[in-house]
From TrEMBL, chains A, B:
GO CC terms in record: plasma membrane
The protein, known as: Magnesium transporter MgtE
Keyword annotations from UniProtKB, A to Z: CBS domain, Cell membrane, Magnesium, Membrane, Metal-binding, Transmembrane, Transmembrane helix, Transport
Cellular localization per UniProt: Cell membrane; Membrane
Length: 447, 447
């Protein structure tokens, strides 16, 4: 309703009223609104924003709209917006922009800033370095609380995070942390040194964002300092950026577990072609790997010719083994993500999966035997064959599902990418092989 | 290494040195250490903690160890710890404790506190009410900035979150928000009214934690106020609790997608029996639902008797359809979680899935036909039958996978619980039925 109303104001060129209507809206909501307008209108609406709000709104726009706006405005206006962005938002923006926009911005930046931007663009994606911002308050330990608060008053306006201040020495090495709460609560003439905490939780520029997220969760932080290899403070990561990073990582993991290439754009605004591309290759690989199962079955064609009833149990075997494998792999993948399981635990995991399997297969095989033999009236040999095949297949699938993600991680392969397709393929092949081998022997069928 | 060292100090009864070693450790690390000790030693170590650290460490312990410690210490010591906990940690603790511990605590609480505790225990799990804490700074709009800061100095020590202060009227209705940053940066004689923001983002006590998480992400918050049905401010939720809630929800979703009941305890410290129980029922249900596929196959036994080679393609069909269905359902489930898709989008989703399917199946069916006919030398009728069955099965699986999670959500069923097993079963049944029906007709086999 709000969108339509504002759209109408724009159409009727009632710009003053439009401006009045949006002035109290949070920047995130204005950005959402702009995304829903068509692009010429979105650009007009963006131009109407009060100067102090423009950069804030800009930082929440999709990179597509950011690019369109950047191309539509002149250098002066563009630089005004860019200069008002927090440094981490500026880097995010530059990473996504077409080359001509990037070069316009670099051309209009100072030498020092160009150097800094280039340095930040070099941090690997998903590293702490790529998430951090350079706007923070640094204090010297010899100062008093009053002097520290005065500094925050002077510099705080342009700093994203003032709630944690960082105490550094003359070489920019991190010596302590003091929160704004501690500063406000301390007597004004106390020394920063006396109230700062020295047990500092920090991360390194090359740490993975998953590690950073674990640290935020464990220590209940709202910001964490980032240091370089010489332990110099180079930036901070704030909790809102970690929330976004966690959302992205989780989407990626869930898409991988669902067997496709992850998509970081919303489903509704992604074209069917792009979505099809993200799914096609995995399906193709799985379809082709199904050839292994097909080969196993065709090898036992003679057996099947004799007892065609055996075919009926192929889906049950394959599905149950596949599901068991995906249960154990999903569980282990999640534990790896949360840092609960390490490489060295692999044998403990295998042993636990064996124990779990024994408990599960006794139950499943019993139900299966009773159902096939008594309820459906198949002969005891067939019920027995199916049940034994089921037991072995579930055990193998569980153990492989448990071990494979850890092995993948050991070789620096994302466990979510590798586990799914491989486990399905292996579980299928194992369950079919055991099933037919058993059937051939137990039912005394000549191959 | 640290753990062993500290364990040794405890064994040798070098308590003073132990105390000295741990005094600078963050409470989260001390809690982690206690969890690794055996329980009698953990209780001794806990007693050795300095009084001001005990409650903090206690709030990070597992509920098992919390219960053991609660039973080992006397009422006075227990109440000291409980009184030092933040209110949300207190409620979390009480929810997990055995009845005798809870009654000891309630017996030693004041009438007013008992009432408040009971009220909080009634909020449904995973609701905003169950996540919130009652310690926050509320201000009156007539006050000056100086008076507000003085109040924060007086009350701030015992308050978890001082970075956002909430302005309420005489009826406790929320009127505005002012951050500590804004207070520190404002002139001391300004009125709170003049600097507070009135565009308040808030949640209701009954809102689901997923909704709350979405709001935190969208608006980059570090705390959000919680109001009751009369818009009175009853508590706040801090970002660290939302991080924990997101972790829990994600684990739950991923476990559901992997086809099992979610487990909220770490894998390594959960017994094989418990883990087996979480997996068994789903496997059993899936195994039994496989009977449908078995029935379809047995109905076409005559067809198979004639062309036993058809069996070889059952795994490829089932796996590809199953995987396609899990791709689309996983994608839609994630979009529902992130609030990107609403109920009303169901027809758009179905239409998009049809478009995606068409693109994908043309590619898959072509590869499949070429492979079976030219590479593996099967007759053209079989290659054609398998390819057509594959195309139809993938389309159906994609559409069902896209629609089912939305329908589930519409009926207030967790889409992750329902989607997985149902889609596999339906995809299997559909692909087999189409395959055999087509084969019977195209290959002119008498049924």
């Amino acid at each position: 309703m709000v969108v339509e109303e504002l759209e109408k104001l724009l159409e009727e060129k009632k710009y003053i009223e439009f401006r009045r209507k949006i002035q109290d809206m949070p920047p995130q909501d204005i950005a959402e609104l702009l995304e829903e307008l068509e692009s010429t209108q979105a650009i007009i609406a963006f131009r109407l924003l009060p100067k102090e709000k423009a950069a804030d709104v800009f930082s929440y726009l999709s990179s597509e709209l950011q690019a369109e706006i950047s191309l539509a405005i002149d250098d002066k206006k563009l630089m005004e917006i860019i200069d008002d962005l927090f440094f981490d938002d500026k880097i995010d923006f530059l990473e996504e922009m077409p080359a001509n926009v990037v070069s316009r911005i670099l051309k209009n930046s100072t030498e020092a800033e160009r150097k800094l931007i280039n340095q930040f663009l070099k941090y690997p994606p998903n590293s702490a370095g790529s998430l951090m911002t350079i706007e923070f308050i640094d204090l010297k330990k010899e100062r008093t609380v009053q002097e520290a608060l005065d500094k925050i008053r002077r510099e705080g306006q342009d700093v994203e995070m003032v709630y944690n201040c960082y105490v550094t020495d003359s070489k920019r090495k991190l010596e302590g942390i003091v929160s704004l709460k501690e500063l406000v609560l301390a007597p004004p003439d106390a020394k920063v040194e006396d109230i700062m905490r020295k047990d500092i939780i920090y991360v390194n520029t090359h740490d993975d964002q998953e590690t950073v997220a674990q640290i935020f969760r464990k220590y209940d932080l709202i910001a964490v300092p980032v240091v370089d290899s010489e332990k110099r403070l180079v930036g901070i990561i704030t909790v809102d950026d970690i929330l976004d990073a966690i959302e992205e990582e989780t989407t990626e993991d869930i898409h991988h577990i669902g067997g496709m290439s992850p998509s970081d754009k919303p489903y509704m605004s992604t074209s069917p072609f792009t979505l099809a591309r993200k799914r096609f290759w995995w399906l193709l690989i799985l379809m082709i790997s199904g050839t292994i199962s097909a080969y196993i079955i065709s090898k036992y064609e003679a057996t099947l010719q004799q007892v065609v009833g055996l075919v009926a149990f192929i889906p049950i075997l394959m599905d149950t083994a596949g599901n068991a494998g995906s249960q154990s792999s999903t569980m282990i993948i999640r534990s790896l993500t949360l840092g609960e399981i390490k490489y060295k635990d692999i044998f403990k995991v295998i042993w636990k999966e064996i124990q779990i399997s024994v408990i599960i297969v006794i139950g499943l095989a019993t139900v299966n035997f009773l159902k096939i033999h008594f309820l459906e009236g198949y002969p005891v040999e067939i019920a027995f064959t199916v049940s034994i095949a089921l037991m072995s297949a579930v055990c193998v699938a569980n153990v492989i599902g448990g071990a494979l993600p850890i092995i993948a991680q050991l070789f620096h392969i994302d466990p979510t990418v590798m586990a799914g397709p491989l486990i399905t393929t292996i579980a299928d092949a194992v369950s079919l092989t055991i099933y037919f081998a058993l059937a051939t022997h137990l039912l005394n069928i000549p191959v």
